[in-house]
Amino acid sequence: MSEETHAIRLRVNGEDHEVTVPVRLTLADLLRTRLSLTGTHLGCEHGVCGACTVLVDGASARSCLILAVQADGTEVTTVEGLAEPDGTMSPIQRAFMEHHALQCGYCTPGFLTSITEFLRENPDPTRQEATEAVSGNICRCTGYSGIVDATLAAAAEMRGEGAGA
Amino acid sequence: MTTRFVGSRVSRKEDPALVTGAGRYVDDHVPSGTLHAAFTRSPFAHARVRSIDTSAARSMPGVRAVFTAADLADLGVSGRLPLLVPNPAILHPITQEPLVSEEVGFVGEAVAMVVADDRYLAEDAADAIRVEYEELPAVSDLRLSAGDGEGAGPAHADRPDNVAARIRVGYGDTDAAFADAAHTVRQTFTVHRGTAHPMEGRAVLAEFDRMSGRVVVRSATQTPHLVKRSLVETLGMDEDSVRVIAPADVGGGFGPKLIVYPEEIMAAAASRHLEVPVKWIEDRREHFMTTTHERDQYYEVEAAFAEDGALLGIRGTMLHDTGAYLPWGIISPYISSTTLPGPYVVPSYKLAVDVMFTNTTPTSPVRGAGRPQAVFVMERLLDEAADLIGMDRADIRMRNLITADQMPYSVGLTFRDGSPVVYDSGDYPATLRAALDKADYDTFPERQRAAMAEGRSIGIGFACYVEGTGLGPFEGATVQIQKTGDIVVTTGAAPQGQSHQTTLAQICADQLGVEPERITVVTGDTDRFPHGIGTLASRIGVNAGNSVHMAATDVRGRVLRLAGDLLEVSPDDLELSGGRVHVKGDETTGYAFGELARMAVGVPGFALKAGETPGLDATAYFLPTQATYAHGAHVAEVEVDVETGRVTILRYIIAHDCGNVINPTVVDGQIQGGLAHGIGNALYERMQYDAVAQPITTHFGDYLLPLSTDVPVAEIVHLESPTPLNPLGVKGAGEGGTIPAAATVVSAVEDALRSHGAPRFTSHPLSPFDVLTALGTFDGAAA
């Protein structure tokens, strides 16, 4: 193969990987096809829909618009890395289930990673703030109300308040 | 017996895998040796293919094969894609070829296929294929296609006119109605839809196995059985050699995934030829160009009213844009034409529909399926009539709504399934009243005046609809108690987020006395369930739901009979609970289901009872005699910023009646989700083409999908008018959130701008440019 390749190292969901990749391989495709982490989905490949959102060094990023080589030396968290190692789901994952925040599930991983970052930065959001926080992800099934409900519920749980908000 | 699970908010069984990234969509399956396909697509909307030079592509890295139409015979592919829903009204039943051989019909149509080691390499090679096109005149505009104004060249070179079909519907004497009318409203409407854009595009993985001679095709489809039928026909295979699976996880459908597409045929053909798995995953740009849309309709209609606002008749013409082909026949325009009278008493009606070809992406039903357009027209006519006559908009509707004591109500038209349109149950005035009350309609004038005093323009709008659901012919189900005691429901239905695995388990659970979590639901696999139609048109709850109910009832009966025989008691003394059958009140007696299932297959050498069949399973097909009609009413309170043209929805109320409800959470989710599509139709989504039929909105920066900040949280009022037409009394719930939304929002915008002297709104979507143009404050050249 005549394509230019690079060797890169990155940590994904706590596990270290060393891979040699073509320069033009996107981070999303690296995750999906080389690391078999198919939870990250491709909805548009032009950075608008947010389905491909992962956390790169803790910050949400569109993995469809990042080259794998750009992730060299970073720590990436995908939807598969949101639960505890023992399988205990994160508050936002549980809240999604409790508040019917998903139907087909295709956009869901991108919402979960985006909201994980948001709640870290804003642990006590108003409904309007939560609504705006998820306005960078497109859902075609739910009409968003369950997603916002789940965000508020997870925030409340993380503040130790249980249900409500 | 009482229902424990049907009617309750059972948690979704689908969710744990999906929130942990463990879903299995088509692209997540990666059998070893999979090759990847890419297609070379026409950049012209209408052209003849003069030559194709694949020599450069064939020698590029990683390329394993290149196919054009000239290779189809060697691939064993013959003919065009089948016309899935024929109709005698279709004058030119043209469908797509697997690869274009001579004449391209729309931008994006595939003329060559590359199969390579990965998608990147396949696309490199697809770009290197040199196609010589002879451009032909392209027609992009619906009205130009029909010959208004200068007219345009034919969309298909061998057809001098662009009429794909003519539909004529009606009843009663419209001439007399208009002769007698005290008031007449005449209007033209341009109703623009867009496209569905499920978050997962199309996807197909074909695996041909040389040893068995079978091809297994995984496709993100709503209709695995129709895909199978199409593959059998075009690939010349026998039924046992083709298996189509719609995976349990498909990322949305909303209509366009019910069509069978060329790429599905070609992936299977390539896999068979190369004897390796071949995968094609659509990207969003391809989706914009090649996955079906549901676009324009143009109406010229008039409505006749008596002095007191009673409708006397409606008549007119409609043009419908089918794009370059007829992938789903003429279902959308037909549904539009039979939906227009809606929930109102319309004594006479006549609509002439011409379905026109244009050199654009073919159109087919998208959530609402032609009804949103018809509802828009009817509701705008009523608003205009109310204004003309000097009546309140709610009063004119109440004057004309079919009442509960008129049920069942025969409209006088024939539905798409050939049966008469007969509304089975529902209290339409009560539903509108419930919505208006919830919206505080009676006090709105005060709110409007108060807002005006603050310099704010607010308006209120509403619309009513009726929706035929639960279409036949069937969607069957098998319920099986296996020898392990596991309970499995198998159905031909194929979900894309509609929660079938949960709702169908609930129905079975009520009959077998077992928690839904313990019931496995298997969907969308032509090997596991041989006869199926598809998940579309809000039909699975009615069809598969009732089939599951019937099959589970049958299995319940077998369990009771067999246990009764073994225990020598009457079945009436037995009950089912916790996966066992036992004497009522004494759980120590009786048998576990698994035990009974093992006994039900008999013992070698011993006879079964006469008339019995082995096993504890049953298959049932509920056969609807006609559609069952859901209905509802929406109310929206909006604010319009007259400086920017921006519309903000302050409140959105939905009164919704889908008969008995299987899972209220699922229904609420369908309504809210449907509303998002409706808001898109009303304000954001416009799929645009230029004068030479080039698509000019081909990414999400140009084509706007509603976001969380755009979709209001619907305040839902539930009404339940069970239908007598099926054992569960259920109606479909998938599209009610969408159908009247554009009419509702536009009515509210018009109300908000009434005092600014804005003209009537007769089209949608309404962008800020459209609002400002209507206000006369924008010299509209853009948008």
Describe the structure.
The complex is a heterodimer of chains A (about 160) and B (about 775). With about 160 residues, chain A is of the alpha+beta class. Helix content of chain A is about 30%, strand content about 15%. Chain A has helices spanning about 25-35, 90-100, 110-120, 125-135, 145-160; strands at about 5-10, 15-20, 55, 60, 75. In chain A, strand 3 and strand 4 (about 60) form a beta hairpin. The radius of gyration of chain A is 16 Å and the shape is globular. The model of chain A has no long low-confidence stretch (mean pLDDT about 95). Chain B is of the alpha+beta class and about 775 residues long. Chain B is about 25% helix and about 25% strand. In chain B, the strands form seven sheets. Chain B has a seven-stranded mixed β-sheet. Chain B has a six-stranded mixed β-sheet with strand order 7-15-14-13-8-29, sandwiched between helices. Chain B is globular, with a radius of gyration of 28 Å. Classes of the chains: A alpha+beta (about 160), B alpha+beta (about 775). At the A-B interface, helix 2, helix 3 and helix 5 of A face helix 1 and helix 17 of B.
